Amino acid sequence: MSGECGCGANQNFDGSSPAYKRVLMIIIAINFGMFFVELFGGLASGSMALLADSLDFLGDSATYIISLIVIGMPLAVRAKAGLFKGISLFVIAAWVLGSTVYRVFVEGVPEALTMGAIGIAAFAANVISAVLLLKYKDGDSNVRSVWLCSRNDAIGNLAVIVAASGIAATDAAWPDLLVAGIMGSLFIHSATRIVQQSWQELSLEKLRQTGSGDKCGKSL
């Protein structure tokens, strides 16, 4: 078999199973639902934090739809989808840090009660998503990026709840800024891992297409 020469051994799960597709559709529905919950909550309370997080849910929904579409496509296509989502995480990290700094120093102290209440609902939604995806977390870059997004969002929502408690206790904005820094670092770490895996998969596919995989015993 190909594993004897180390070429293409242990191919990662690519999402091509009815069970995984059902899970992904459930998670897309959860994220779309939470987008509207946080959008209306943010508009009602004037909370920029909630409006920002609602866009994160919307962005996740869009990337999960991309993940669903590319399932079963060639490795190069799936890897490019993973690469796109990795780059998107870098953009989100920059946006989270920048918007939070702006909110803290320009708009003042966020509203702790609204942050905490809707943060709990968002945390529950993302925990459900992460649990559903747990057994698929070691798939290819496309599948793995879905797991990492859900896990990061759950950690981020928990951090928002902690920040809201800190804001309520201190009546200061620094807990929000601290949490933003932690979340931004987490996004950057996950983005780096997804991009690295995507590049590895693209390199593997390029080797196969150029015939470098002939070391596995194939002859021209």
TrEMBL record:
It comes from the Bacteria. Keywords: Ion transport, Membrane, Transmembrane, Transmembrane helix, Transport, Zinc, Zinc transport. Pfam families: Cation_efflux (PF01545). Coiled coil: none annotated. GO terms for molecular function: zinc ion transmembrane transporter activity. The lineage of its organism: Bacteria, Pseudomonadati, Pseudomonadota, Alphaproteobacteria, Kordiimonadales. This is Co/Zn/Cd efflux system component. It is found in: Membrane. SUPFAM superfamilies: Cation efflux protein transmembrane domain-like. Its main location: membrane. InterPro entries: Cation_efflux_TM, Cation_efflux_TMD_sf, CDF/SLC30A. The chain crosses the membrane at residues 23-45, 57-77, 89-106, 112-134. It is a multi-pass membrane protein. Residues 24-71, 81-202 form the Cation efflux protein transmembrane domain. It comes from Kordiimonas lacus. One of its GO terms (cellular component) is plasma membrane. The keyword Ion transport applies.
